C-alpha cells in the first residue's frame, strides 16, 4: 500500500504540472487540492496498512502460545500416564483439548488425537460410558478429514 501511495503522489504531482501547462491556473488549483488531499491521507492509510499485520502477528503469537501450552499439558499427561496415574492425567488432557478446539477448531486432526487420548484414559479407568462418545467423535473427525476408505 505504501508503494502505491508513493507512486500516486508522484503521478498526482505530474498530473498537476500537466494541468497547469494545458489548462491554466484554475484547473491547476483543483489538482493542488487533490494532491493535498492525497498527501494528508497518507499517514492514516499507512497506519491502517500496518494495523492488520500487527494484529495478525499478535493473534498468531497468541495462538502459538496457546498451542504450546496445550502441548505442555499433553506432555505432563503423558508422564502421568506412564506412571499409571490415569485419573490425574484426565484433567490435563481435557484442558489441552479445550485449548486445541478454541485455536484449531473442532475438526482438526490434533483435536481428534486428543479426543482419542482422553477416551483411552477414561477406558483405562473403566469409564466406558465417558470414553465411547469421545472415541466416536474422534472417529467422525478422522472420517471427514481422511475419508471413509482411509486405512486408519
**What is the terminal separation in angstroms?**
47 Å
| Range of strand content | under 5%
Overall pLDDT metric? 79
Low-confidence stretches are none
Q: Could you give the order of the helices and strands?
A: HHHHH
Which structural class is indicated by helix and strand composition? mainly alpha
Please compute the radius of gyration using only Cα atoms: 29 Å
User: What global shape is seen?
Assistant: elongated
Assign a percent range to the helix content: over 70%
Largest sheet: none
Please give the number of β-strands.
Answer: 0
Helix tally equals 5
Secondary structure topology:
Elements: H1 2-23, H2 25-82, H3 86-104, H4 109-124, H5 128-146
Helix pairs in contact: 1-2, 2-3, 3-4, 4-5
Would you kindly provide a written description of the structure presented here, covering whatever features stand out?
- This protein is mainly α and 152 residues long.
- It has a domain at 2-104.
- The protein is 88% helix and 0% strand.
- The chain has five helices and no strands.
- It has helices at 2-23, 25-82, 86-104, 109-124, 128-146.
- The longest helix has 58 residues, at 25-82.
- The radius of gyration is 29 Å and the shape is elongated.
- The two termini are 47 Å apart.
- The model has no long low-confidence stretch (mean pLDDT 79).
Amino acid at each position: 500500500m505504501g508503494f502505491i501511495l508513493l507512486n500516486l503522489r508522484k503521478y498526482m504531482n505530474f498530473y498537476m504540472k500537466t494541468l497547469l501547462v494545458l489548462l491554466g491556473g484554475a484547473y491547476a488549483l483543483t489538482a493542488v487540492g487533490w494532491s493535498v488531499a492525497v498527501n494528508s491521507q497518507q499517514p492514516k492509510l499507512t497506519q491502517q496498512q500496518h494495523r492488520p499485520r500487527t494484529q495478525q502477528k499478535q493473534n498468531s503469537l497468541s495462538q502459538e502460545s496457546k498451542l504450546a501450552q496445550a502441548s505442555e499439558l499433553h506432555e505432563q499427561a503423558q508422564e502421568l500416564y506412564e506412571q499409571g496415574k490415569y485419573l490425574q492425567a484426565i484433567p490435563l488432557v481435557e484442558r489441552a483439548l479445550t485449548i486445541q478446539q478454541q485455536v484449531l477448531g473442532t475438526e482438526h486432526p490434533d483435536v481428534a488425537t486428543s479426543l482419542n487420548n482422553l477416551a483411552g484414559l477414561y477406558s483405562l479407568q473403566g469409564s466406558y460410558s465417558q470414553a465411547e462418545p469421545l472415541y466416536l467423535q474422534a472417529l467422525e473427525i478422522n472420517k471427514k478429514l481422511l475419508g471413509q476408505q482411509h486405512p486408519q
